[in-house]
Design goal:
This protein has helices at about 5-15, 20-25, 155-160, 160-165, 170-190, 195-200, 245-265, 280-295, 295-310, 325-335, 350-365, 375-385, 395-405; strands spanning about 65-70, 75-80, 110-115, 125-130, 140-145, 315-320, 345, 370-375, 390. The chain is built from 13 helices and 9 strands. By secondary structure, it is α/β, with parallel strands linked by helices.
Length: about 400
């Protein structure tokens, strides 16, 4: 029995309701991701398939050279694509309605070069195409909403011991690295990102208090002596969402968030410049040791993020349950600054992920397709409620599969 027959036999035995479908297309390499739309059902010549909410966990077939099939339920199409061998666990990714036809790239702006008078006395001009302008929020066609901890980075599970016990790593080493990174995160947040001032005045988004900023030049502004915090702390002034302190105090709060934004944009591609020696050398060593311990988890996530960023009219957005300032510190220290513009980072600490997803949807509009990537129940529940495709990340292989799907333009 050859490899394709073996895979076919396994699927038809384990999933009998797929048997008539497989008999027409052979075998479908799959990615293990469950979609939620009840409308995602095969149509046309294929046998009716009732959507199931549970996921199907399928063993890896790393030894086999096989074929990948795309099944687009909405378009009644089936396309075979030859694929290199990969060891990810398999399952069916039925995006159906989530496959709008690709739009042409954003057209470049035309620059008219001044006309010159020819020998015959007539004016002649020509047009030069400039580099394409970055798309506006309303032009974005696909938004990838990412969770942070245990999806892109490994951090919290190092401290709790979950990562080491699940993947057979040295628990004492994992906890040690987690504590080391935690110290660096809060050290950077406190020393450079005003976390001591802003901890009790957390915001969902970096521009949430921008309307209180009068645009004053901050190049010589003394944040340490502007009286922002009273001796008892400023917590009483941050009473909750939408409740402001005095106008003068709110302006000083806005100044701090503006400076945080400036620091992020200045150092997002040069984090070492934020750290003084020996912290810089310690940070580089910590990053190396964490990548070894986590089997290049972050490196794999960065590949997927880079693929999305390379596409016109696609964008990465981060929604995390970490407070905004520590979240920015994490993003910088894990080297994610180039993947996430600061305007695309949201903290769900105060309002929850569902409200954050609403804000993201309002920003990019109804025409965009939203794909949620995460490891937690909260983002999965919200994705299901909003009928957004959800890509679960529970191990490094899920990131490899995501990268593979992006490379083949499945997502």
């Amino acid at each position: 029995i050859n490899s394709k027959q073996l895979i076919f036999k396994f699927f038809t035995k384990k999933f009998p309701h797929f048997s008539s479908f497989f008999s027409k297309i052979g075998v479908m390499a799959t990615y293990g991701q469950t979609q939620y739309s009840p409308a995602l059902q095969p149509a046309g010549p294929y046998t009716h398939y009732t959507h199931h909410t549970q996921g199907y966990s399928v063993p890896s077939y790393s030894k086999y050279k096989h074929y990948l099939f795309i099944f687009s339920c909405g378009k009644k199409t089936c396309m075979r694509v030859s694929s290199k061998t990969f060891s990810q666990r398999s399952a069916c990714l039925l995006l159906g309605d989530y496959h709008p036809p690709p739009s042409p790239p954003t057209p470049g702006k035309e620059e008219v070069i001044p006309a010159r008078r020819g020998s015959d006395g007539k004016l002649r001009g020509r047009k030069k195409i400039l580099d394409p302008a970055p798309p506006l929020d309303s032009d974005i066609e696909r938004v990838f909403i990412w969770d942070l901890d245990e999806t892109i980075i490994i951090f919290h599970s190092l401290l709790t011991g979950t990562f080491s016990s699940r993947f057979g790593k040295d628990s004492s080493k994992a906890v040690s690295l987690g504590l080391w990174m935690e110290e660096m995160i809060f050290n950077l947040a406190d020393s450079r990102l005003f976390f001591n001032d802003l901890e009790e005045c957390d915001q969902v988004h970096i521009d949430d208090v921008a309307s209180d900023d009068n645009g004053q030049d901050l190049s010589t502004y003394n944040f340490g002596s502007d009286g922002f915090q009273s001796p008892a702390g400023a917590g009483s002034l941050c009473l909750g969402s939408g409740v402001h302190g005095g106008v003068d105090w709110m302006r000083k709060l806005a100044f701090r968030y503006r400076r945080v934004k400036e620091i992020y944009n200045t150092y997002k591609n040069n984090v070492g410049g934020l750290l003084v020696s020996p912290k810089r050398e310690e940070w580089l060593q910590l990053r190396r040791e964490m990548e070894i311990l986590t089997d290049l988890w972050l490196t794999q996530a960065l590949k997927a993020l880079a693929l999305i960023n390379s596409r016109p009219n696609c964008v990465n957005v981060l929604v995390t349950t970490t407070q905004l300032i520590p979240a920015l510190s994490k993003v910088l220290l894990y080297g994610l600054g180039s993947a996430f513009p600061i305007e695309n980072i949201y903290s769900a600490t105060k309002i929850g992920k569902e409200s954050c997803f609403e804000r993201v949807s309002q920003r990019f509009g109804r025409r965009a397709v939203y794909v949620v990537i995460g490891d937690g129940a909260e983002e999965e529940t919200v994705a299901k409620k909003k009928n957004m495709p959800f890509w679960r990340v529970s191990c490094r292989a899920d990131l490899e599969a995501l990268t593979h799907a992006l490379e083949l333009d499945y997502l």
